[in-house]
Design the sequence.
């Protein structure tokens, strides 16, 4: 007898600048699946903690802040992107800065903060399916996901991409400075004691350094479609 099929999840984990965000969004659109940008949750907590002048080294205070922070995602008025609302304030742009990325990486290393965000992440699993973008989607949050991808790119290429994104937003930063920040963040995300960044068992590894986005998307879609 075949039981009820679990809602399928495609996890896309990898370091910042590997193209996860873009690839996850396009793949979710093509499949007609929901999208979880889990990094935005950690960024929102980092943002809320900074706004409240919470010392990021004070794990208990940051955890209280994580539990109290209300985070909602809503489509922008033109429907082209998703806005991230933190405690009623549209923080979509503020959470994308490098400062907020570093704050996110710091709060994400606190086990109780990660725990506080688990239920929220699981609630995104709705039919017809979910594309989950993050660092521990395939290893910790959705270990039973039938489709897992680990996306990487060289630090130099990731710094180049990030530089382009920030320049488009009118922010001025140097590529070398970005590369140093990216490497420091990778180091912290990969070496923390809970849910470190690492490929899930059986994940399809894709190196996007020399691959255009369309080719990465095609590989990921092929993984899902091969099974359907
Ligand atoms: O994907 P991103 O750059 O928006 O993530 C910001 C930070 O949040 C990243 O440095 C590590 C942390 N993060 C995490 O620890 N686990 C996740 N699932 C997603 C992000």
Sequence:
């Amino acid at each position: 007898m075949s039981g009820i099929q679990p809602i399928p999840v495609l996890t896309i984990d990898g370091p910042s600048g590997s193209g996860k965000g873009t690839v996850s969004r396009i793949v979710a659109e093509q499949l007609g699946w929901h999208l979880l940008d889990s990094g935005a949750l950690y960024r929102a907590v980092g943002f809320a903690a900074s706004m409240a002048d919470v010392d990021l080294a004070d794990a208990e205070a940051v955890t209280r802040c994580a539990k109290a922070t209300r985070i909602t995602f809503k489509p922008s008025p033109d429907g082209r992107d998703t806005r991230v609302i933190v405690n009623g304030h549209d923080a979509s742009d503020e959470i994308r800065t490098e400062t907020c990325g570093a704050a996110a990486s710091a709060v994400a290393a606190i086990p109780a903060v990660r725990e506080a965000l688990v239920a929220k992440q699981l609630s995104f699993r709705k039919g017809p399916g979910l594309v989950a973008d993050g660092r521990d989607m395939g290893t910790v949050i959705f270990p039973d996901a039938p489709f897992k991808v680990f996306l990487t790119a060289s630090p130099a290429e990731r710094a180049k991409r990030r530089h382009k994104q920030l320049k488009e937003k009118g922010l001025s930063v140097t590529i070398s400075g970005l590369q140093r920040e990216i490497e420091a963040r990778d180091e912290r995300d990969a070496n923390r004691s809970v849910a470190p960044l690492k490929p899930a068992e059986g994940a399809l590894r894709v190196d996007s350094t020399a691959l255009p986005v369309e080719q990465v998307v095609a590989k990921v879609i092929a993984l899902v479609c091969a099974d359907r």
User: Anything to note?
Assistant: Residues 16, 38-39, 42-43, 101, 104-105, 108, 134-136, 185, 189 surround 2'-deoxycytidine-5'-monophosphate (CB under 6 Å). The first strand starts at residue 9 and ends at 13.
